[in-house]
Design goal:
Blueprint (H helix, E strand, L loop, with lengths): L2 E8 L7 E7 L6 E10 L2 H7 L9 E2 L3 E9 L11 E4 L9 H4 L17 E2 L7 E2 L9 E5 L3 E3 L5 H4 L5 H12 L7 E5 L3 H12 L4 E6 L2 H10 L3 E4 L5 H8 L5 E6 L4 H10 E9 L13 H6 L3 E4 L7 H13 L9 E5 L4 H9 L5 E5 L1
Parallel strand pairs: 4-8, 11-12, 11-14, 12-13, 14-15, 15-16, 17-18
Antiparallel strand pairs: 1-2, 1-4, 2-7, 3-5, 3-9, 3-18, 5-6, 6-10
The chain binds adenosine-5-diphosphoribose and zinc ion (ZN) (2 copies).
The site of adenosine-5-diphosphoribose (APR) has 26 residues, from α4, α5, β12 and α8.
C-alpha cells in the first residue's frame, strides 16, 4: 500500500518550485518511511533547481531534516517505528575500500532507498535531493539514512542533517581543533557560524570571523567569535596574523567557496597550520599559488565533505550538546515557513540575510 502526500518539487531547470501530490511506496527491504517534522532550506536545494547538480529533473527537494519513523521494511534493525530521527546523506556501506580502511567518511557507496517516489499525476519518478527529498510530509529513505536521536525540537536538530554538521565537522573533525588553538573562519553564513560554534566547543581560545557583511559578523560573535574582520575594509590575512602573534591561525576554515577566499585561507594559516576547505567552488574557478609557498608551508590543506561526519557518532553527540545548552542550534533558525513558501525562502536566501529558513510540518 502506497500513500499520497504533499511535497515540493523542481520540475525543470529554473522553474519555480511547486507543491504537488507525491506517491510514497511502503518501505521495501532496508528502507524506512519517515514522517518529516522539519526541514531546513540549503543552498544545495537551490543548486538542484538551477540545474547545477545534474539534469535528473524533476527533483524532490529538501535534505536537512528530522522526523519520526512511520514504517520500516524487512531486515531493518537500526531504527523502529516511532523513533525520532535526523536524516543523513551518508549511510556508509561498511564494505568499500574507504570503509575497510577505517575512513568511512570517504565511503564510495553510500546507500539510498531503492524504490522511487513518483508524481501522483503521471507516475514520473522523482530524484530526491542528496538521496533524501524531505520537503514532503513523508519520505522514503534507506534505513541507514536515519539516525535515532533523543527527543528534541525538530526544527533545530534537523539542521544537523547538512549545513550545521558540515561547518561543525569542518572545524572539529577535519580541522581537529583542540583546546587553546586559534581558528579563523572565512565566511559567516550557516556553515561558517557552525564552524565557529564548533571551534568554541572544542576549546579554541582565539576565534576570528571574516566576512564582507557586518551583519554576518554580528551573528558570528553570537556563535563565539572573539574577533571579527570585514575583509572589504581590512586585509584579512594581515589582520589574522596580527591577532595571532604574527604567525597565522592554527586552523583556517574556508566557508565561502571562491578563489579569493581560498587564497586568503592558504596564507592566513600558521606555517604548521591546517586549512580546511568546506566552501564549494564552481567548476570554472581556478587559483594559482606559488609552488615554493605550497612547499614551504607545512601543516595541511584538507577539504571537508559533509564535515567528515559519521552520523551515528556525531548527531547524537550534537543533540546532547544542544540539549545541555552548549551548542546553540536554534540560533541558526532565521524563520519557520510552510511547504508552500520554499520559493520565497530561495529569494530570501539569495538576498543573503538568512542563516536558515526551516520548513515545519
Ligand atoms: N569574503 C568573505 N566572506 C564572503 C565573501 C568573501 N569574498 N563572499 C561571500 N562571503 C560571505 C557571505 O557574506 C556569507 O555570510 O560568505 C557567507 C556565505 O554564507 P551563505 O551564503 O549563507 O552559505 P552557507 O550556507 O554558509 O555555505 C557556505 O559552504 O558548504 C558550502 O556549499 C556551501 O559553498 C557554500 C559554503
Ligand atoms: Zn563504504
Ligand atoms: Zn545541504
Amino acid at each position: 500500500m502506497s500513500q499520497t502526500v504533499k511535497g515540493v518539487i523542481a520540475r525543470s531547470k529554473n522553474a519555480e518550485v511547486e507543491v504537488v501530490d507525491i506517491v510514497v511506496p511502503d518501505p521495501g527491504p532496508g528502507e524506512a518511511v519517515v514522517a518529516i517534522e522539519a526541514c531546513g532550506v540549503c543552498h544545495t536545494d537551490l543548486h538542484y533547481r538551477e540545474g547545477g547538480i545534474n539534469d535528473e529533473f524533476p527533483f524532490l527537494l529538501g535534505h536537512e531534516a528530522a522526523g519520526r519513523v512511520e514504517a520500516v521494511g524487512e531486515g531493518v534493525t537500526n531504527v523502529e517505528v516511532g523513533d525520532f530521527v535526523v536524516l543523513n546523506w551518508r549511510a556508509v556501506c561498511g564494505q568499500c575500500r574507504a570503509c575497510k580502511k577505517g575512513q568511512p567518511w570517504y565511503c564510495f557507496d553510500t546507500a539510498n532507498a531503492t524504490q522511487q517516489m513518483t508524481l501522483a499525476e503521471d507516475g514520473t519518478a522523482l530524484t530526491p535531493a542528496l538521496g533524501i527529498g524531505a520537503f514532503i510530509e513523508k519520505t522514503l529513505v534507506a534505513a541507514g539514512q536515519c539516525t535515532k536521536v533523543e527527543e528534541s525540537d525538530a526544527a533545530a536538530v534537523g539542521l544537523l542533517g547538512c549545513g550545521v554538521m558540515a561547518g561543525f565537522g569542518a572545524a572539529v573533525n577535519t580541522g581537529q581543533v583542540t583546546r587553546g588553538e586559534s581558528v579563523a573562519v572565512i565566511g559567516c553564513g550557516g556553515v561558517g557560524c557552525a564552524a565557529i560554534a564548533g571551534a568554541k566547543t572544542a576549546g579554541a581560545t582565539t576565534i576570528i570571523a571574516v566576512d564582507i557583511d557586518d551583519e554576518k559578523l554580528g551573528n558570528a560573535k553570537a556563535f563565539g567569535a572573539t574577533h571579527t574582520i570585514n575583509s572589504e575594509k581590512d586585509d584579512a590575512v594581515e589582520k589574522i596574523r596580527e591577532l595571532t602573534g604574527g604567525f597565522g591561525a592554527d586552523v583556517v576554515v574556508e566557508a565561502v567557496g571562491r578563489p579569493e577566499t581560498y587564497e586568503q585561507a592558504f596564507y592566513a594559516r600558521d606555517l604548521a597550520g591546517r586549512v580546511v576547505l568546506v566552501g564549494v567552488p564552481t567548476p570554472d574557478m581556478e587559483l594559482t599559488l606559488p609552488l615554493l609557498e605550497i612547499f614551504g608551508r607545512g601543516g595541511a590543506l584538507k577539504s571537508s565533505w559533509y564535515g567528515d561526519c559519521l552520523p551515528e557518532r556525531d548527531f547524537p553527540m550534537l543533540v546532547d550538546l544542544y540539549k545541555q545548552g552548549r551548542f546553540p542550534l536554534e540560533e541558526f533558525i532565521t524563520e519557520k515557513i510552510g511547504l508552500n513558501e520554499v520559493e520565497k525562502a530561495f529569494d530570501t536566501m539569495k538576498g543573503g540575510k538568512v542563516l536558515r529558513s526551516v520548513v515545519t510540518l
